[in-house]
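Tip: read the tokens left to right.
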């Protein structure tokens, strides 16, 4: 019996050692959220869905604002639209990850219409949220390396084949680099068509949620105490933008109202003349993402200068 216990203990230790090795060395390849929960608490953050997850690059922001007195580095704490929906759950995780010693941080909230919607069948007023049970909302320890809690609770998100490929990779700063891109226009057009179909499929099931709008206002107000907050609507294809305007015509008015009442800037890059290349209609590729992030920094810098 004792020998069996020793063998079992040894087996568990070996498995734990292998798991630790994989998480520490390949965490960004085997899971697209994992590294966000291994880094220290953040003094500056990017918040949003997959558009900002892929399209806003922290290293560009860090280089731009280096030695200007801001609390850096920036962490990209964006997820996908299945998880990154504005509301009490996302706010709670953001506040857990926020370094409360920050008083001059840079906070970028990339906002989309769907991020402030409720879906039929979920009563937000009664605390029913479609994102419940997913990361980051199911994680208590948001700054632990290695993070075994994340692994145990979100094993289904891991894809261990990623260790051996050169596909998408989550960087330590939270930016997801998508490497599986193509120059084939037919394939790109097909990707965009598929994304539009996904967007249109269930649009009638979504409505703007007062609870989520209020949560956005609470988020802005709390982050303002820790630094400079900007609301951003990232550039998307003309087709995507027109559909968003059709289904959520009140969106810009809502966001403008929050920005004005809190005295923060709102940048809608769909109304600017610069064109950025997306690979599926609403995700900027990593090359345009670098340019976009630099232009976003220019806009933020100008707003800070005016504020002074």
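Filled-in amino acids:
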């Amino acid at each position: 019996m004792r020998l069996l216990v020793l063998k079992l203990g040894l087996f568990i230790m070996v498995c734990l050692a292998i798991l630790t090795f994989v998480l520490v060395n390949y965490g960004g390849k085997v899971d697209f959220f994992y590294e966000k929960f291994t880094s220290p608490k953040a003094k500056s953050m990017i918040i949003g869905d997959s558009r900002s997850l892929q399209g806003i690059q922290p290293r560009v922001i860090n280089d731009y604002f280096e030695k200007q007195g801001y609390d850096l580095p920036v962490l990209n704490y964006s997820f996908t639209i299945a998880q990154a929906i504005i509301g009490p759950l996302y706010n709670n995780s953001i506040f857990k990850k926020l370094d409360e010693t920050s008083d001059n941080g840079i906070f970028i909230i990339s906002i989309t219409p769907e991020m402030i919607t409720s879906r039929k069948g979920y009563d937000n007023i009664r605390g029913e949220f479609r994102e419940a049970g997913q990361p980051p909302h199911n994680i208590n320890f948001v700054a632990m390396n290695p993070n075994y809690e994340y692994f145990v609770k979100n094993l289904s998100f891991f894809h261990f084949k990623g260790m051996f490929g050169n596909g998408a990779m989550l960087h330590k700063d939270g930016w997801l680099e998508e490497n599986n891109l193509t120059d084939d226009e037919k394939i790109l057009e097909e990707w965009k068509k598929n994304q539009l179909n996904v967007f249109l499929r269930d649009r009638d099931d979504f409505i703007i949620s007062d609870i989520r709008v209020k949560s956005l206002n609470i988020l802005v107000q709390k982050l303002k105490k820790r630094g400079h907050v900007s609301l951003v609507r990232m550039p998307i294809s003309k087709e995507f933008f027109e559909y968003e305007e059709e289904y959520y015509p009140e969106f810009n008015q809502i966001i403008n109202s929050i920005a004005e009442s809190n005295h923060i800037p709102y940048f809608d890059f769909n109304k600017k003349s610069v064109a950025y290349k997306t690979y599926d209609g609403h995700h900027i590729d990593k090359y345009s993402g670098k340019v976009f992030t630099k232009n976003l920094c220019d806009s933020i810098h100008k707003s800070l200068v005016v504020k002074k």
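The first helix runs from residue 2 to 30. Residues 19 and 80 are 25 Å apart (CA to CA).
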